Structure of ABC-2 type transporter:
Amino acid sequence: MTAATASVPVRPARPPRSALRLGLLHAKYQFLEAIRIPIAVIGTMMFPTLAMVFFVVPNQAVAQNPVFATAAVAQLGMFSIMATCLFTYGTGVAEDRDRPFDPYMRTLPAGASAQMIGRVANGLIFAALGLLPLVLAGWILTAATLSWSRLLVSVLTILALAIPFTMLGLGIGYSLPSKAAIAVVQVVLFPLAFAGGLFLPPQMFPGWLDAFSQALPSRAGRDLLVQVTSGEPAYGLALPVLLGWTVLFAVFVVWAYRRDEGRRFR
């Protein structure tokens, strides 16, 4: 007597997805989650535009001068990038860590790289979206101009400038609870913006504040963006200062992520 055995087809193992592909997938669902609350996105996007309408447009000496107006748009654009990155990640990551789904995500075999890629990509997208109403207001209401040859370089510069502030936001988000992260983001954002010349041109600063300002990432980013958009030259150490802060913020993110993982999962 022989027993017939049914053969079960065995599916071939699915090849593992790359960290880049998982990161883009992570970015997609983070973006969809963020736009489910439109007022939060709109509020972040509109503040620099309102500052343009209330403080730059009424000042005709600035608004009707192409170089000054373009520099003013670039300054507020730099503030928009900083605010988007710090609020999106400084508070967003801290709030995510309080949710039950985040510990589950951290146990998946994808590792930290996919989440980091997704968060950085999402920050770049919202930084770009935040500039749209500001650029439109500057184009319609002031004499700001930007040639086509400078447009592509300006977009690439903006994306590059978002990276260090995304890193800073991530570091704050992974190192603090959500209530503390909100306060720290506000404390960090506005002094950096003022001392970096994003509300007043650095030419109006006293000598000591101008010297201190040149060591800040906000001033370095502001001057590089103004140079690309209006042609007004940045100070000589702007790029090295920004690169130095980028490396420092990247180390801060790695330290904060590993510290958080060590506390919660070991």
Q: What stands out?
A: The first helix runs from residue 19 to 34. Residues 19-264 form one domain. The mean pLDDT is 83. The chain has one domain: 19-264.
